[in-house]
Design a protein that fits this description.
The chain is mainly alpha-helical. 49% of the residues lie in helices and 0% in strands. The protein is elongated and about 65 Å long. It comes from Panthera tigris altaica. Keywords: Dioxygenase, Metal-binding, Oxidoreductase. GO terms for molecular function: metal ion binding; oxidoreductase activity, acting on single donors with incorporation of molecular oxygen, incorporation of two atoms of oxygen.
Length: 133
């Protein structure tokens, strides 16, 4: 659970923020008016009056862009450049983990080939080994 929360879950909620949040109506940071209380009563004018100011939107775009950048020293999930484990048992566990990650990656890539909008944020090679902002 710890490995998942600090790697894959973080990638799932963090990596696509700029891709999906760059179109401000997807993720408005604030609303200048309360939402309509009755369904079907919103107008274009009331909708536009509700959206945040341009400067607020620009700040959010900058934030989304910053947190979505790949780190320069990225270590993909399952990559351990430092040899902390020299015993056979942990080395087998690491190898099994890396093999499973390779299978998952292959499944994701095959599934994404048939999608108009592929979802690659949970492909193991693009998931950071740990939370990295």
């Amino acid at each position: 659970a710890i490995i998942f929360n600090c790697s894959a879950q973080h990638a799932a909620v963090n990596s696509g923020q700029h891709d999906f949040g760059a179109w401000m109506p997807n993720t408005p940071s604030s609303m200048r008016q309360p939402p309509p209380q009755t369904k079907g009563t919103a107008t274009l004018e009331s909708y536009l009056d509700t959206l945040p100011e341009v400067n607020v939107t620009c700040n959010n775009l900058l934030l989304f862009w910053l947190v979505s950048q790949e780190p320069k020293d990225q270590r993909p999930l399952g990559t351990y450049p430092d040899q902390h484990f020299t015993e056979e048992a942990p080395r087998r566990s690491i190898a099994a983990f890396q093999n499973r990650l390779a299978q998952i990656s292959q499944e994701i890539r095959e599934r994404n080939q048939g999608l108009v909008l592929p979802y690659a944020y949970l492909d193991p090679p693009v998931i950071e080994n740990s939370v990295s902002i």
